[in-house]
Amino acid sequence: MYRAQVLFRQLEPRTARTSAEVIKFALWPFAVMTVLNRVFIKAINGFVTDDYRPVYNASFEFLNRRPVYTADFSSVDPHYLYPPSGTLLIAPVAVIEYELSRWLFIALNTAAILLAWYLLLKLFNFGLNSVAAPALLLAMFASETVTNTLVFTNVNGCLLLAELAFLHLLLKRRDLWAGAALGLSIAVKPTLAPLLLVAAVRGQWKVFITGLGVPVALNIIAWPLSKDAGKFFTDVMPYLMESRDYFNSAIVGNAAYYGLPEWLTLLVRVLMAGVVAVTLWLLWRYYRQDELFFVTTFSGVLLTAYFLLPSLGQMYYSMMLFPFLMTVVLRNSVLRNWPAWLAIFGFMTYDKWLSDRWQDIGRNLEYLRVTFGWGLLLIVVFCVVGDRYLAARRQGRLQYGIDPIWMTSAPKPEPVASVPQLDDELIDDDASAIDDRQPALK
């Protein structure tokens, strides 16, 4: 009863007394209503793109001991691409009829995203009473990546939760559990597999035991239960290694769509790979002791490169970059500049740039904004970290790190002058001066 009273007291309308309260009171209704709109309107309505139908059909076939990997890869329809381990984990969705199953899967993803939101707040030491809570919730559910994850009904929300669990456990040095969280995600989709490198460069090798052991064990269990498990390796994996020129924001995807020569595509990929390699080395060399900044920034650069450089990258993969984007609250963040947020706008916004009046320009903006956004973000991080390194080397302070001096030196407190005791008459005489400094509220 007491807890209910506390909850209702929090919801009681009242006038904000501070700027922080004003912002919170303004953002919470926007955040909550955006969540409700995305879940109960957009997601339930669905879209012509339906990522859930092939998953449901494959799960149904698996439960009935029939072939699963029967997709026609020459079509542009969504295909079933999960490995046998993923089929084993997701098969229970086909126990009930399709529509109810889809609604429950939307609810599961929503719950996973909300829990990931809470873990992300805790990762950066924010509480539910902070301004960051509604701001982050609104930003997440207003983004393209969360919106289309729910509308298309895919598993990315669960992968985001696995990523946040991995980061929390990794920073707490609970390596086997961190690997288990990552391994479960890899068993379904390899989206987070590059994060094994984060554990490797930190010397947390036990992560690999469960990070690789869990998907291997699940595949071994699923193999005799699947009618055509071998086809995943003979048919699906070769398809995944190919680049396609539709629904593909990786460099090779847009290069194929616009007909760029192969040598130019390869050159761009090699140059961007070099940018990523230098950035990752500088982060490891000079920031690995700053654990929160290093783990979130290193993993963000790594995942962005993984979306941009290989054969397939889709816009809603950007959900996995939320921990990286949250580093903007850190003093030494590499994202505290406008080019970084121009890049983030490119791959996070739900806006569409297709134009009826300027069709060619609108189509190019829409198709290229994600590729350019990911690429620009990598270049911005490279430039920020590289500039810090060059400045520190020029000033002869590399042994102390590469953060600018103004970041590392705490501001000196102002000397406090002794204030004589004032009587009431002096206070009255000086009232006008006090009013000039701090106007009274009307």
Automatic annotation (TrEMBL):
GO terms for cellular component: plasma membrane. InterPro entries: GT87. The keyword Membrane applies. GO terms for molecular function: hexosyltransferase activity. The keyword Cell cycle does not apply. The chain crosses the membrane at residues 103-120, 126-143, 150-171, 177-200, 207-225, 263-284, 291-309, 367-390. Keywords: Cell membrane, Membrane, Transferase, Transmembrane, Transmembrane helix. It is found in: Cell membrane. It is a multi-pass membrane protein. It holds the Pfam family GT87. It comes from the Bacteria. Its main location: membrane. Belongs to the glycosyltransferase 87 family. This is Alpha-(1->3)-arabinofuranosyltransferase. The lineage of its organism: Bacteria, Bacillati, Actinomycetota, Actinomycetes, Mycobacteriales.
